Amino acid sequence: MISKRTGLFGLVVAAAVSGPAAVAEEEGDAHGVGEAAWLEHCTVCHGRDGTGNGPFAPMLKTPPADLTRLAERNGGDFPAAKVRAVIDGRRIPIAHGTAEMPIWGKVWSDAGEREIGVRARIIDVVAYLRTIQK
């Protein structure tokens, strides 16, 4: 039987784990970790400036999105949750064939990164993308 004390401890631990992630999404390390991950993993397709002009862009069937206009295309609000889901990619069904964008959540977890680290990296990239909106 689980005591009330054990249940409360579990809630506190869950809040401690999820709380920093929520704060990080709002405040983010926009010009640190997020930008570094962006430069390392995303610019080859999306370009350094995020407009979709990376060196691999011409080789793709579907041109990379202009990520500097995400908020503009969403009525002025940056769609952080949607961007986070697309970057992670593990919960987005692929209707036909394969997606050209890597499923970064799987890539990073398969490379041995713990789930909390994968989520933090994605949140940092999302925070960085928020800073490059036009």
Written description of the protein model:
52% of the residues lie in helices and 0% in strands. With 134 residues, it is mainly α. It has one domain (4-131). Helix 1 runs parallel beside helix 6 (115-131), helix 2 packs across helix 6 (115-131) and helix 5 (104-110) packs across helix 6. The longest helix is centred in the first third of the chain and has 24 residues, at 4-27. The chain is globular.
Describe the protein's topology.
Elements: H1 4-27, H2 33-41, H3 43-46, H4 80-88, H5 104-110, H6 115-131
Sum this structure up briefly.
Helix content is 52%, strand content 0%.
Q: What is the count of helical runs?
A: 6
Q: Oligomeric status of the shown chains?
A: single chain
Question: What would the average pLDDT be, to the nearest integer?
Answer: 81
Tell me the radius of gyration: 17 Å
Straight-line distance between termini: 55 Å
Give the SSE order as H and E letters. Answer: HHHHHH
Give me the count of strands.
0
Structural descriptors:
single chain, 134 residues, mainly alpha, disordered N terminus
